[in-house]
Design a protein that fits this description.
Layout lengths: L6 E6 L3 H10 L6 E7 L3 H11 L6 E2 L15 E4 L6 H10 L3 E4 L7 H14 L3 E3 L7 H11 L6 E10 L10 H4 L3 H17 L5 E6 L13 E8 L2 E8 L1 E12 L2 E6 L8 E4 L2 E2 L7 H15 L7 H20 L2 E3 L1
The chain binds NADPH dihydro-nicotinamide-adenine-dinucleotide phosphate (NDP).
The site of NADPH dihydro-nicotinamide-adenine-dinucleotide phosphate has 21 residues, from helix 1.
């Protein structure tokens, strides 16, 4: 039967992530459900409507999107579009009087992030970023271990890479992606570093390590950077030119704390100097969306607010600045 429990979510942009992860997760959520879809592809309308039982009047496109203002079935707009479109649709959603979840990276510039935060504030609506790993128990454990120095002083090492050399994909087009793997994948290594220490970096240094410079011209193909925190350093890598790999590691006084498959939707494996982490996996996206629905229902702040997205976009800009001229940047 139709599931209409809790707050209604409108997914904007029915691509790989919306279709592969978010819509299925919305069948598992308790406090929100898929009420509406917004798509620029006519053929997706009937396919999605049938599969997820979406009412005809809850189907929108990018032109008539603003009419959601008059639709009480929609409480939350979830923006799952290419990066450079996040700002426009977050602002339009706020103006239509809806709460917003915006995918990572929040935007392609710090300036846009500020406009998005202001639009939601002006509308009296909440804004959160799709940082699903803050709702994953393996990452909770990493935060606990790092922030409490359970195994003593440490440095962090993190990488998220995969192979993507397709000029037809928006991810390799600067106008839509805003940047390369740093914006898309490296952001997880950056986040992982910050929540491992529970601190903000005081300086950073970055290097463009692109292999195929004839393909990767407008965006980086590979990048490495180093962050200095008050209590340690983090060494990060990201690439669109390497086999898929995702790791978050603490090199501590007592040995290694390691998350393998660290940034995937599932299959995470964790170990510490004491042995394997015995943790039951969860559906990250279902947890994330339910948490935001509860924030709205209970009027509590999101743990992944727009301000966190702004912070990360700011650091990403600094990393690019440093990579451009190999300079060390002091915050
Ligand atoms: P896809 O390319 O698979 O889907 C993007 C969708 O956006 C398209 O299917 C299309 O939907 C719509 N769209 C509108 N205009 C354009 C355009 N000019 N070019 C391409 N697509 C357009 O991307 P993803 O789903 O992988 O990524 C979408 C967003 O989600 C990104 O910001 C990405 O960073 C983020 N993401 C987050 C993940 C996470 O784990 N948190 C994982 C994957 C992605 P339609 O046909 O309905 O109009």
């Amino acid at each position: 039967g139709t599931k209409t429990k809790g707050l209604g979510i409108a997914l904007v942009g029915l691509g790989g992530y919306a279709g592969g992860q978010l819509a299925p997760a919305l069948l598992e959520t308790e406090h929100c459900y898929l009420a509406s879809i917004v798509t620029g592809t006519k053929e997706k309308e009937s396919v999605w409507a049938k599969k997820y039982n979406i009412k005809k009047e809850n189907i929108y496109n990018y032109d008539n999107f603003d009419a959601i203002a008059n639709n009480n079935d929609i409480d939350i707009v979830y923006v799952v579009l290419p990066n450079s479109m996040h700002a426009e649709f977050t602002i339009r959603a706020a103006k239509a009087g809806k709460h917003v979840i915006c995918e990572k990276p929040m935007a392609t510039s710090v300036e846009d992030c500020k406009k998005m935060i202001a639009a939601c504030k002006d509308a009296g609506k909440m804004l959160s970023i799709g940082y699903r790993l803050h709702f994953d128990p393996f990452h909770d454990e990493i935060m606990r271990i790092g922030q409490n120095k359970v195994y003593g002083e440490m440095n962090v090492a993190s990488e998220f890479s995969f192979m993507l050399k397709d000029p037809k994909r928006w991810r390799t087009q600067k106008d839509l992606a805003g940047g390369g793997p740093l914006m898309d994948l490296g952001i997880y290594a950056l986040q992982g570093s910050i929540y491992s220490f529970g601190e903000l970096p005081t300086s950073l240094w970055a290097k463009n390590t692109t292999i195929d410079t004839s393909f990767f011209k407008d965006i980086e193909g590979s990048l490495e950077w180093e962050l200095t925190f008050p209590s340690g350093k983090s060494y990060c890598k990201t690439s669109y030119e390497k086999p898929i790999y995702a790791e978050l590691k603490h090199n501590t006084e007592k040995g290694e704390v390691k998350l393998e498959n660290a940034f995937y939707y599932g299959g995470l494996k964790g170990s510490t100097p004491d042995g394997k982490m015995e943790i039951k996996p969860v559906n990250q996206q279902a947890q994330q969306m339910d948490a935001f629905a509860l924030n709205i229902i209970e009027n509590t702040p999101s743990i992944v607010p727009g301000e966190m997205g702004l912070r990360d976009n700011y650091l990403i800009e600094k990393i690019y600045e440093s990579a451009d001229d190999n300079s060390k940047i002091i915050q």
